[in-house]
Here is the input.
Amino acid sequence: MHIQDAKDPKSTVSTADTNEDDRRLRPPMKCQWSYDDQLLAVQSGSGDIQVFLTSAPLLGDSSINYAVVLNSLTELMIYSYHTDSIVTSFVHLEMEPSVIGVGPTHAACCSNNLVHLFTLAEDGLYFPEDPHVIREFNGDINEVALNYEYLAVRSGDKAHLTMVRKS
Here is the structure.
C-alpha cells in the first residue's frame, strides 16, 4: 500500500506492507484516518486491522545550549551547541512523552503524572542518573520548566517546585 500526498498525487509519502506472513496479498478493503490525521487504520480482506503512524506529534523545547525534539514516539533528539559545531545525540525513552522541558543541565520528559529527568553533558551527549530520575506528582502534568537548581511543574491549577539535584 502506498500513502500519497493529496497535493501531489504522484509523490509517495510512505509505503506500508499489508501482506500476511504467508505472503499472500491481502488488499486493503477500508481505510480510516484518526481525528488528528496522525494514524491511518487499514482493514484487509481477511478482517485484519493494521494501524500506521503517519506523523509524530511536534514536541520539543530549547535552552541556551540545547534543543530537544521528539524524533519518534519514544526517541528524543538532543542538539547541543556548546562549541562552534552542533553535536547530536539520541535518547530512547520507556514512554511516550506529552510534555518536554529543557534547562541548562537537564532535560525533562513528562507523561501523565511522571517526570523523567536526564542529565545533559557539556559535550552534547546525555548521561543518565541511575539511569535517570523519575519524579511523581499528584495530577497530569501540563507544563514543565527547569533552571540550574529547580524543576517547576504545572499540574492542573497548581504549581510544584522541587530541586533538580537532591543533595
The chain has a mean pLDDT of 79. The chain has two domains: 2-53, 60-163.
